[in-house]
Amino acid sequence: MALWKPDPTFYPSPREAVAAPAEELAYVAAYDRSATKPDAIAVIDVAPDSSSYGQVVGWTELPYTGDELHHFGWNACSSALCPYAPHPHVERRYLIVPGLRSSRTYVLDTKPDPRQPTLVKTISAEELATRAGYSRPHTVHCGPEGIYLSALGGANGQDGPGGVALLDHTSFEVLGRWEVDRGPQYFAYDVWWHLGHDVLVTSEWGTPSMIEDGVVGELLLGRKYGHALHFWDLRKRRHLQRVDLGDQHQMVLELRPAHDPTKEYGFVGVAVNVENLSASVWAWYREGSQWAVRKVIEVPAEPADPEKLPPILKPFGAVPPLITDINLSVDDRFLYVSAWGTGQLLQYDVSDPFSPVLTGEVRLGGIVTRQAHPSAPDEPLAGGPQMVEVSRDGRRIYLTNSLYGAWDDQFYPDGVGAWLAKIETDPASGGLTVDPNFFPHGDQFRGLRVHQTRLSGGDSSSDSYCYP
Amino acid sequence: MSTAYLVALIGLGAFHGINPGMGWLFAVAIGLQERSRAGLLRALPVIAAGHAVAIGVVAGLVVLSHSVVTSRVIAIVGGAVVVGFGLWRVWSERHFRWAGMRLSAWQLGSWSFLMSSAHGAGLMLLPVLLAEEPDSETGGEAYAHAHSGHIHHHAPDSDATSAAEGGLSLADALVATAVHSLAMLLVAGLVAIVVYEVVGLRILRSAWINLDRIWAFALLVAGGITVAMGVSTFV
To answer: Fewest Cβ atoms closer than 10 Å to its Cβ: which of A196, A296, A367, B37?
Structure first.
């Protein structure tokens, strides 16, 4: 039933959202790589004055196995305040949790007990296939008039095209395929938008056959993975423009548009440049009536002794940074960049989006460095900073270490482990400090690997706004 | 035009104007997006025009009814529709999927028309429009006659006489639409400017009560009154 007053976690503008209270719980997608145990949403206490701070305090197991939980999102967020379809009296309470491998999508209710979300609905792979023609659901965003769900694969035996399905945000039924005219778009990955300009943006990874058994060397060196951005008319659901970054820039992944709805720029991370194994971040922006991109950050590969490298990297004698996630603070001031291969989290001041300034760096894990966490200095860490989430006030950053089951196994063949780290920063001056008192890892996650984190009340990548 | 009638038209105009879903919030958003009050002021009349068309459609239907007999039928059927619509508004959480932030004036006006119609803004005015005494002398007498009729149980044939002369004229409908929409525009404009210039959008977080629900109950009341009026003329 609807509320009498707007949900208190909805903010009309990013300026207001920055003043939001600190999160108390973190929800983390945990999955069993062997697909013999059910995946789970782990709930972590993140309130520093709590006695169970940094502990896993809740665990919601799903009814099936083999889902590979990956990204997830809320049923509703600040976009519910948008003036053209206002419905501010719905609640942010359901987590929409897709299984990237099974194509099932779960709806979990966090209201009865926020520490123990309960399963209220399962959207079957068949429903997604029949209604929208998609499989491998990936990213969830709460839009002003429904829930947007990107999906990597096609349905009924088709590898592609991947695209976006629209879900009803009260019944959670799959309403259908979002695209009316998809133009040349075939690969899918992330989706987000500029609400103030009626523009939707999508990025490209690859189809299920290209990713599910690990990265395919021939495809990568043959430059067959995605290397373009797509811009769409959000209202008419039509493809407007494809912007190619160059086919050496393989896997164009996380999209982080400016939160300020009057702005028309954003950032996207590219996993690897096959010419020199570097990774990069690009800014997209409007140039007249067209969209354009510019490389604004490049992180070089780090030379390494082939003896210390996994088989897939031995021929190259270097560790690729592999930028696999980025995140933009709600005030659009700091961009966080995860280099999962080299084990770095980099913080850039992007007040000028075209000339980022490096303001902080933390090393954890890494294919060769295996940098330990300060709370367990003798324990070499596998995996690296991967999914990065930033609190609404911009003070706390949460990192998990698994990328994607089959790919973890290639780059960290002796085991990727499972850990969640928390980094603190000063939203005025920047700089990164690892919180030594917060490090749920290993057995706390019961043998499962951990992927995306969502923060109670919302975070930097959960909400979008219609007012500046 | 009676004072009560004017007060009802203006009051409902204010009620519609104050609802963020009816357009003032959209005007504020346009002003903020363009970083100019001119954008806000440009949007308001367009939104009010769309609202006026939604009201005018219902008023026009009342005019078309022409006779008291059909008015009764319209009152009962229309009232039932309003009640049903109100119930639907209580339970339904539907909204548009085609709109966006960048609308042309024409699209913005259409948005306002559809938003007003879908929320039953015009239907809410039905009891007011049906209850209005016609302006003309004869019409007034006929109305009084019809009213006295149901007390004195006068002969059925006198109904036909009053039917021809009673009801809302086209001019009445236009005036009612204009008065109501002007009140809506003034209130929406006042709220929009106060929010834009003074209090800021933070107010939304605390003051945006669920008007949809109040609105639904208002429709139920309006529909109930309309049906009661229609039934009472048969008694």
So the answer is: B37
DSSP A22: P
Q: Do B101 and A196 touch (CB under 8 A)?
A: yes
Q: Classify residue A273: in a domain, yes or no.
A: yes
| DSSP-derived secondary structure letter, A463 | -
Token representation of residue B82: 């309003």
From the list A138, A147, A48, A40, the residue with the least C-alpha distance to A391 is A48
Minimal C-alpha gap between B104 and chain A (Å): 13
Which residue type, as a one-letter code, is found at position A64? Y
Going by their DSSP bridges, the two strands A94-98 and A105-109 should be labelled as antiparallel
Whether A336 contacts A383, CB under 8 Å: no
- The pTM of this model reads 0.90
Question: Do the domain assignments include residue A72?
Answer: yes
Band (pLDDT 50/70/90 cuts) for residue A324 is very high
Nearest CA in chain A to B34: A262
Q: Residue A272 burial by CB count (10 A; 0-12/13-18/19+): exposed, middle or buried?
A: buried
| Total domains present in chain A | 1
Q: Which residues of A touch B188 (CB under 8 A)?
A: none
- In whole angstroms, give the CA distance from residue A396 to residue B200: 28
> Which residue has 């520490």 as its token pair?
A115
pLDDT at residue A224 tops 80 = yes
CA A168/CA B92 separation, integer angstroms: 13
* pLDDT of res. A467: 95
Average pLDDT of span A361-390:
97
**pLDDT tens by residue, B90-113:** 566 555 566 788 899 999 998 898
Q: Is the dihedral of CA A52, A25, A435, A190 positive or negative?
A: positive
Interatomic CA distance for residues A99 and A72, integer angstroms: 9
Q: Which residue's entry shows tokens 């367990």? A: A376
Per-residue pLDDT, averaged over B185-213, amounts to 90
- Contact B97/A4, CB-based, under 8 Å? no
Q: What is the CATH number of the domain that holds A100?
A: 2.130.10.10
Mean pLDDT is lowest, of A218-227, A236-245, B216-225, for B216-225
Identify the band that residue B57 occupies on the pLDDT scale cut at 50, 70 and 90: confident
Measured in Å, how far apart are chain A's first and last C-alpha atoms? 30
Task: Kindly determine whether residue A5 and residue B111, on different chains, have CB atoms separated by under 8 Å.
Answer: no
Q: Cis omega (within 30 of 0) on the bond before A137?
A: no
More confident residue, B64 or A268: A268
Greatest alpha-carbon pair distance for chain A in Å reads 64
Asked whether residue A54 is domain-assigned, the answer is: yes
